What does this fold into?
Amino acid sequence: MGSIRRDKNAKPDMRTTMQLGAVLSKTAEVRNGHLYVGGVNMAELAREQGTALYVMDVAQIKQQLRAYKEALGEDNIVAFAGKSFLNKAMVRLLAAEGCYLDVSGGGELAIALAAGFDPKHVIVHGNNKTETELTEAIEAGAGLIVADCFEELERISRIASARGITQSILLRIKPGVVADTHTFMTTGSEDSKFGFGITDGWAERAAAQALQLPGIALKGIHVHIGSQIFAISSYADTIEVLANLTENLSKNCGFTPEIIDLGGGLGIAYQAADEPTAIQELGQLITKQLPKAWEQRGLPLPTIIVEPGRSIVGTAGLTLYTVGAIKDLKDIRCFVAIDGGMTDNIRTALYDARYESVIANKADRPRDAIVTLAGKHCESGDMVAIDASLQTPEVGDIVAMLATGAYNATMSSNYNAQVRPAVVFVEDGTATLVQRRETYTDLMARDI
Ligand SMILES: *Cc1c(COP(=O)(O)O)cnc(C)c1O
It folds into this structure.
């Protein structure tokens, strides 16, 4: 990788914290120059708990879950995508809000079960679930398993029937819709490793096979077209494709899906200017356009499932860091070194993601500097923000990187034997540690 050049034209945006628009969580406010979230002073919290630190605004998470439930109506189901953010406290919050949970793999299922989550409300995903993972899911009584390939249909059938169980499943379908997002975040095109294609006839073959196999109850079809999607048309296109597929399955296989699972993917604001699609707009498609498409084809109305992850937790989260060193390389760039980086936020390096950040203890000041927030790890690509506006930083300041609630903690690593940050929930002026910081002992716990 060549060096990333400073954008010479980049000018600080002079925004103060409260001018960052949809990037801010519901309860973000500035009091006496300090950033508060959930009624808690972020700079103080950072000093109490240490940094790097993940903070989650519980009111924001609840608001998003409730917005989905309201937009979809009583008869449909909201299943949170656990891979975006998961720990036992989150599982308990989902259960209290009456939501289902998507898991990908045995580890996420184990967390859900350990937190007492109702297995009937679990949907199991993955494009190559192992024999062990399938056995664990079937024995636990998982509500739905989403079969991704012919091999899995055989495996589910064999494992379930050996135990006298009839496992409810969905078929993962590739709708052939290319979502308007980063290539690594599209999953619904025909050139995707996920699911059964339609035009190649795999979807109909899979349905025919699933209907014949013992130990399987085929309930419906599932799609997930990608993530961080802004264009609502991607969903509208998908609904048309699924209506046609449903009609064909009904005619050619004698199978009419009772469940249509539309996956997740709704985008959020990462930058102040971003205007993501509202949950309510997606709700309109699901409660108006979809029933219309089904009625036109004389098909009975299915139950709809959506599986949002990022749009539930993304904006609710922020990461706090302490500034440790500043290297102002005059005509090149200003490096501001923080006490985290690619181990707690890999998305910048992986997807070229952009984030907004503020100095939590200078939150009322305009962002009058252009800086690159560099991590502490042994990689030049270890940067969490490149040429971004920030209040002029000093060593010891607390940086709050905004909208890091999704795909940060769950993608964290121990590179450089870095201990992973703690997770704190904030709500109504109270901070609750829900996942402690790792220790050096944790790092060596598996060594024999
Ligand atoms: C990742 C994923 C989701 C959640 O996607 P978001 O973009 O976080 O909403 C939902 N369903 C499946 C199958 C996924 O793989």
